[in-house]
Design goal:
The complex is a heterodimer.
Chain A (H helix, E strand, L loop, with lengths): L8 H16 L5 H24 L8 E11 L2 E9 L1 H24 L6 H20 L3 H19 L6 H32 L4 H8 L11 H16 L8 H4 L5 H10 L4 H8 L1 H5 L2 H24 L3 H21 L3 H28 L17 H15 L5 H16 L1 H26 L31 H16 L8 H10 L2 H8 L2 H28 L3 H8 L1 H8 L4 H48 L7 H24 L1
Antiparallel strand pairs in A: 1-2
Chain B lengths: L3 H21 L3 H26 L3 H31 L13
Classes of the chains: A mainly alpha, B mainly alpha.
């Protein structure tokens, strides 16, 4: 260890910000609150940058012991930090994008009465996310994991007076709990079999094990359980249902937590555990299949949504599916690459959507937008860049990472590649649909009077015409747009992969080089053409012939309705799990066990005691002579008894 | 020599008379006298046993009881007079403020 990086500062700084804003923010001015929020998250970003600067001077993986935590027998889990290429990438993404979104929030949330609370939560989220990313053992990672879940819950339900927001927060928390349960069991298995949760120790023990090709074994079980956890946090089938609902939160939250950082925690965790997954082919297959199916499934739902944030939410689910597909075919670095570029362009898309919503006074329905390009040119420009990036049009960031994933998928199994390409087509289509519906054509929304609308609660401000957002919101958009343009070039010539090679092993890279260059270029061409086709189709349907979508929807009536209603998955879950649970709790546990057994036992005991005392209390009449009578009668009985005993 | 049992029967009879009087009489003075009767019934059995076992402790006890009874009579009669002055009755059923 050549130098001390003081990594612990990075998570602790946002925590300090959260504490200051949380405890003192209520009485402080908005300027003070935003200063605190920005300074502490910005300091974390600056420190992360300085760590990156000194990165080459330390021996990797760099570990930093902070404090004692749990020591029990031979098992130990400490507060200790772990830095390698993978955590560095995550660190920079989380602090960088996080800081930009903090800046954006200053403008977006300015008029909210709970301004300080928002920044306190946001900083708290940063703390937990950085804990998750920097942890050197699974237990501390789990703390961060649960912590971001908490922050996500708090922020989804930020406008808790709105019923839908409160229940969306609960839904996110409960669905995540299912995944966390799997994660926890996986952790228990790790403790049981390896006696440690420390990454280096566990992986050192896993490394010599042979891959479980013959049949599922311990590593497969651990891998699948970890994947269950990842499914919850990263919104994969079957636990993705919470993410679209999470859009009830303020838009910066959707950008930070539900697009750029928290939802990618599952990908990070799977990539971090690559040593386990690589030795459990069946678990990897599960990851790949879940990822691929989710990518396609969520993308199809995205086509029909009309709420601008819902489209982006399903798009996020779909893109996360890509990342898992990459991990599943063993291309962890491609998955992390996509994670990074996705953080840029999806964060940008959400912030842009927030700017649009801000511009039109809280309206989220794209059918009531349109023609906004002349009102909000900067937002239009940045959103356009982000759309090009997510659609996979070169040379924007999304192209590089998505192409990398598709190429790796093709090498593993062409079915994954095919579904991936179809999804890319759909992605391009629905993203351009969003773009055209929002910015092209004529404005379809009502010119609202100032302060004349209240349906969307807090997202709105007084408006006449749609108007451009303040600079404090536009600058983050521009920075992210720049990153969405150039972010992909770090992957040029597999540089990103080489950078991560010390973490994931270099075998992966070599395999990539070996296959023919021609095929790679061909596949690249296919994905670009497919992306352009999607864009063209969106142009035809939503710009040149806007009457067509309705016709198509009518022609495919049943299917369209099913997709529009998200394949009725929520309803299915409600029937299969929620309702039986509620019925069982109500009829058996509540009415049966609690009321009939427990309550009745207690109540009857009390009633019995009361009845008995009711009878007995008449003896205490207060009449002195009746007492004397009782005494006399009692002593007569005693004497009679004694005589009887004596006689016998 | 009169056998012990005679004394005890008389003592029990006196005590029972006292109890009965205490329970059935309304007049507070009669009740007071019944209490004295009970005390004397007990005194009788004390001295009877003392004579029977040739043990002076019983007789000493009787003196104690007499002293206490005298003190009680002094206080009790004073209370009775005070009650009569305020309530103009000696019927205990009408002096029942403590009753439930």
């Amino acid at each position: 260890m050549t130098s001390n990086l003081n990594l612990w500062l990075i998570p602790v700084l946002p925590l300090a910000g959260a504490a200051i804003n949380g405890f003192l923010g209520k009485k402080s001015s908005r300027t003070a609150v935003s200063t605190v929020g920005l300074v502490f998250s910005g300091a974390a970003f600056a420190w992360a940058l300085s760590v990156a600067w000194r990165f080459s001077s330390v021996a990797l993986p760099y570990q930093e012991y902070v404090a004692h935590w749990i020591r029990s027998g031979s098992f130990s889990a400490d507060f200790a930090l772990y830095l390698d290429q993978l955590s560095l990438v995550m660190l920079l993404v989380v602090t960088g994008v996080g800081f930009l979104i903090h800046v954006y929030s200053v403008g977006y949330m300015w008029e909210d009465p709970s301004y300080y609370r928002f920044f306190s939560y946001l900083n708290l989220f940063m703390f937990f996310m950085l804990t998750l990313v920097l942890a050197n053992n699974y237990l501390m990672m789990f703390i961060g994991w649960e912590g971001v879940g908490l922050a996500s819950y708090l922020l989804i339900g930020f406008w808790f007076t709105k019923d839908s927001a409160a229940s969306a927060g609960k839904k996110a928390f409960i669905v995540n709990r299912i995944g966390d349960f799997g994660f926890l069991i996986g952790i228990f298995l790790l403790i049981q079999h390896f006696g440690s949760l420390n990454f280096t120790e566990v992986f050192a023990q896993v490394q010599p094990l042979a891959p479980e090709t013959a049949g599922a074994g311990l590593l497969t079980a651990i891998g699948i359980l970890l994947m269950v956890g990842a499914c919850g946090k990263s919104a994969q089938i079957p636990l993705y249902v919470w993410l679209p609902d999470a859009m009830e939160g303020p838009t910066p939250v959707s950008a930070l937590i539900h697009a750029a950082t928290m939802v990618t925690a599952g990908v990070y965790m799977v990539a971090r555990s690559h040593m386990i997954f690589e030795r459990a082919p069946q678990a990897l297959m599960v990851v790949a299949v879940i990822g691929t199916l989710t990518a396609l499934f969520a993308a199809t739902i995205g086509i029909t949504q009309t709420d601008i944030k819902k489209v982006l939410a399903y798009s996020t689910v779909s893109q996360l599916g890509y990342m898992f597909m990459a991990c599943g075919v063993g291309a962890f670095s491609a998955g992390i690459f996509h994670l990074m570029t996705h953080a840029f362009f999806k964060g940008l898309l959400f912030l842009g959507a927030g700017s649009v919503i801000h511009a039109v006074g809280g309206e989220q329905d794209m059918r009531k937008m349109g023609g906004l390009r002349s009102y909000i040119p900067w937002t239009t420009l940045t959103m356009g860049i982000a759309t090009l990036a997510i659609a996979g049009i070169p040379p924007f960031a999304g192209f590089w990472s998505k192409d990398e994933i598709l190429w790796k998928a093709y090498q593993s199994n062409w079915v994954f590649w095919l579904i991936g390409v179809i999804t890319a087509f759909i992605t391009s289509f629905y993203m351009f649909r969003l773009l055209f519906m929002t910015f092209a054509g004529d404005y379809r929304g009502a010119k609202v009077d100032a302060h004349g609308h209240g349906s969307h609660g807090h997202d709105d401000h007084g408006h006449g015409e749609p108007h451009e957002s303040p600079w404090v919101m536009l600058v983050p958009l521009m920075v992210l747009a720049l990153l969405s343009v150039v972010g992909g070039f770090v992957g040029y010539g597999n540089r990103f992969e080489h950078f991560l090679a010390p973490v994931f092993g270099s075998g992966e890279v070599a395999a990539g080089e070996a296959t023919s260059r021609g095929t790679e270029l061909l596949l690249m061409g296919v994905s670009v053409i497919v992306a352009l086709l999607g864009a063209a189709l969106a142009y035809v349907l939503y710009v040149s012939k806007p009457y067509l979508p309705q016709k198509i929807a009518d022609a495919m009536n049943g299917f369209y309705t099913a997709v529009l209603n998200k394949y009725y998955v929520d309803e299915l879950y409600a029937k299969l799990f929620v309702k039986p649970l509620i019925d069982g709790s109500t009829n058996i546990l509540w009415q049966g066990v609690d009321r009939k057994v427990i309550d009745d036992t207690v109540n009857n005991a009390a009633d019995g005691a009361r009845h008995v005392s009711d009878e007995v209390r008449h003896m205490q009449s207060g009449n002195l002579r009746s007492y004397a009578g009782w005494i006399a009668a009692g002593s007569a009985v005693v004497i009679a008894y004694m005589i009887w005993v004596g006689v016998r | 020599m009169v056998p012990l049992s005679y004394y005890l029967v008389l003592s029990g009879f006196l005590f029972a008379c006292g109890v009965t009087g205490f329970l059935i009489k309304r007049n507070i003075i009669t009740i007071f006298m019944s209490i004295e009767l009970m005390l004397n019934g007990v005194n009788l059995s004390f001295v009877a046993f003392a004579a029977h076992w040739h043990d002076l402790a019983g007789q000493v006890f009787v003196f104690f009881v007499m002293v206490v009874a005298a003190a009680e009579a002094a206080v009790g009669l004073a209370i009775i007079i005070a009650v009569y002055r305020t309530r103009e009755t000696l019927n205990v059923d009408q002096v029942n403020l403590l009753k439930l």
